[in-house]
Amino acid sequence: MTRLANHQQQRLQTLDSRRSVPSRQLSGPGPNRDELLRILQSAVRVPDHGKRVPFRFLRIEGDARHALGAILARRSRERDPTASDSVVEKDRQRFTFAPVVIAVIAKQGPDEKIPAQERLLTAGCVCFALLQAAQAMDFGAQWLTGWAAYDPVIRDALGVREDEVVAGFIHIGTVLLEAPERERPDPAALLADWTPAA
Ligand SMILES: Cc1cc2nc3c(=O)[nH]c(=O)nc-3n(C[C@H](O)[C@H](O)[C@H](O)COP(=O)(O)O)c2cc1C
């Protein structure tokens, strides 16, 4: 094992302590506007090929969460008229557990130099950095998508444009109940040395 200096150990410990808290285990208070802007200040520090800033944020909080829940419930019924009431109720509640949900919208329009994939990766980094920054501010957070992220009616209701995609809904709040740690991949099993073909 590599011997680490104290400061290295502390920094890695912070990175290693990141874990999601399921949205239904989050409650109020969530970050207020100032706290959220501080979280976003860290979240926007992502690698960004061509400095395109290929992302934007939508805050869904308070009554807006319930309004979105009502749209989800209606759309859920429309997508599957045979859906049970409990399925529809689950959809209604999706955005109502955490006090604040940040939709990270990735810009995917035409670009002469930077492939859409790279811009989506940048938006994905933003989602991850948001999780880390929220946890650093003592909040819990979870990155969710679900059908709502891809459904045209919900996209339209959110004002997501044709050339944009929802990279994720980041649910942020106070932790009611910590999530148990899950097994993590073994990096040694994933690492190989590339060697040139003979
Ligand atoms: C792009 C993306 C979308 C996700 N969408 C969902 C989802 O819709 N539902 C879900 O239960 N988990 C989803 N997850 C997984 C959770 O964010 C999270 O990784 C999981 O709860 C495990 O927690 P961990 O972050 O501590 O590993 C998604 C993850 C990613 C990266």
Explain what this protein looks like in three dimensions.
The structure is a single chain. This protein has 198 residues and is of the alpha+beta class. The protein has a domain at 21-61 and 99-175: NADH Oxidase (3-Layer(aba) Sandwich), CATH 3.40.109. It is built from seven helices and five strands. The protein is globular and about 60 Å long. The mean pLDDT is 97. Bound molecules: flavin mononucleotide. Flavin mononucleotide binds next to strand 4. Residues 19-20, 142-146, 168, 182 line the site of flavin mononucleotide.
CATH superfamily of the domain at 21-61 and 99-175: NADH Oxidase
Mean pLDDT: 97
Question: How is the quaternary structure best described?
Answer: single chain
CATH topology of the domain at 21-61 and 99-175: NADH Oxidase
Percent range of helical residues:
40-55%
Strand content: 15-25%
* Biggest sheet architecture: 5 strands, antiparallel
| Count of separate DSSP helical elements | 7
Please report the total strand number as a whole number.
5
| Secondary-structure class | alpha+beta
Radius of gyration over alpha carbons? 19 Å
Write down the secondary-structure element order. HEHEHHEHEHEH
- CATH class value of the domain at 21-61 and 99-175: Alpha Beta
N→C terminal distance: 33 Å
Low-confidence stretches: none
